[in-house]
Design a protein that fits this description.
globular
Length: about 120
């Protein structure tokens, strides 16, 4: 059974940094695309960033390019989202996802975590 458990969310100020973690169980990280999505209140879930099965390709949403970075530690079975220069518009629940490449749409994901709240005050 695939389980994705996010952690690391919280309340920060604009300009701060935060790192989210996604602990993965039930699947082999090196065989699937992994990514992050987010959903702000009253909005649709949107793509943030994804990394392919080999780690050779990464896609970023334009809104986070240059500020966010995805990485993974296969030995620790963990995926990370480093978020820098946070803005108030980054406020959302962030979800870890596993799926097929390109993981730029939630429809390409087959597993999602329960989410972690990130709130950025301006």
């Amino acid at each position: 059974q695939v389980q994705l458990v996010e952690s690391g969310g919280g309340l920060v100020q604009a300009g701060d940094s935060l790192r989210l973690s996604c602990a993965v169980s039930g699947l082999t990280l090196s065989r699937y695309a992994m990514g992050w999505f987010r959903q702000a209140p009253g909005k649709e879930r949107e793509f943030v960033v994804a990394i392919n099965w080999s780690g050779s390709r990464i896609d970023y949403a334009d809104s986070v390019k240059g500020r966010f970075a995805i990485s993974r530690d296969i030995a620790r079975k963990t995926v990370y989202l480093q978020m820098n220069s946070l803005k108030s518009e980054d406020t959302a629940v962030y979800y870890c996802a596993a799926g097929s490449w390109p993981l730029v749409s939630a429809s390409n994901g087959f597993a999602f975590g329960q989410g972690t709240q990130v709130t950025v005050s301006s």
